[in-house]
Amino acid sequence: MIVNGKEIVLQKESSIMEFLEKEGYDPTKVAVEKNGIIVPKIKFETETLSDIDKMEIVCFVGGG
Amino acid sequence: MPNREEYESMMAARHTPAVHNKLKEGKVAVAGLGGLGSNISVMLAQAGVGKLLLVDFDVVELSNLNRQHYDLTHLGMLKTDALKKQIEKINPFIETETGTLKVTEENVMTVFNGYPIVCEAFDNPQYKAMLVNALLAQGGQTIVAASGMAGFDSANTIKTRQRFKNLYVCGDFKTPVQEGSGLMAPRVAVCAAHQANMVLRLLLNIEKA
């Protein structure tokens, strides 16, 4: 699987939510694209990832 | 006071007529009028972007003056009104709409309707993500967002990146506001300038970050 341009090995199929939590992302502070399509937050629990997927995760930090 | 014609011909002479006309047709919304949004709005007005929507629910406070484009005479005023007044003094010949309201998932669709480009200039990371997700889900708009401009790291660490087809993010992407790493005028303005510059590029049909 490719995440933010880097190849990683997905140990087992997991939901986007499980993946974000495992990788240390706060799911309330991100925008996620899977294979070029935006994934709405309500689908984080149900949308699954497999090793052929390409993901982009944009994480926001505070300040403005 | 210069009249519209004098102002327009100065802008066309400085920017070239082709660039001036494209920017004049631009419609850009700015969500959040703090350090980023107030500076972005002023720069877009200076560039002659024809129509701006300024969105914020808050009033100007003393603690804003270290980095936001307001002064002592604006204390207690709505940020939307304070910024509109300043913009009218810079370029009275552009149209400035204001939205004095709190942006929510529910009102995103109506608030930013009619603005093909939206600058995300909120402070809170959850609100940043909420706005970006809601606009992207709706589709059809390009977002120029910001993440990471606190602290004293080099100004050279602040970049513009295209992350999704319709999402550009400016910042160092990592430095949050925290104790000992606050928001300082220069880095906030550098980030705001990255956002404003990306907006101008998009209005000139340049998509590269």
Provide structural commentary.
Chain A is mainly β and 64 residues long. Chain A has one domain: Beta-grasp domain (Ubiquitin-like (UB roll)), CATH 3.10.20.30. Chain A has one helix and seven strands. Chain A has a five-stranded mixed sheet, with no helix packed on it. A two-stranded antiparallel sheet of chain A has the order 3-6. Chain B is of the alpha/beta class. Chain B has one domain (21-203): 3-Layer(aba) Sandwich (Rossmann fold), CATH 3.40.50.720. Chain B has helices at residues 4-15, 17-24, 35-47, 79-90, 108-111, 125-138, 185-203, and strands at residues 27-31, 51-55, 95-99, 117-120, 142-146, 159-164, 167-171. Chain B has a seven-stranded mixed sheet, sandwiched between helices. The A-B interface holds A 26, 28-31, 33, 36, 38, 40-41, 56, 58-64 and B 32, 34-37, 121-126, 128-129, 132-133, 136-137, 145-150, 163-165, 167, 169, 171, 173-177, 183, 188.
Produce the secondary structure layout.
The complex is a heterodimer of chains A (64) and B (209).
Chain A: E1 2-3, E2 6-7, E3 14-15, H1 16-22, E4 30-34, E5 37-38, E6 48-49, E7 54-59
Parallel strand pairs in A: 1-7
Antiparallel strand pairs in A: 1-2, 3-6, 4-5, 4-7
Chain B: H1 4-15, H2 17-24, E1 27-31, H3 35-47, E2 51-55, H4 79-90, E3 95-99, H5 108-111, E4 117-120, H6 125-138, E5 142-146, E6 159-164, E7 167-171, H7 185-203
Helix pairs in contact in B: 1-2, 3-4, 3-7
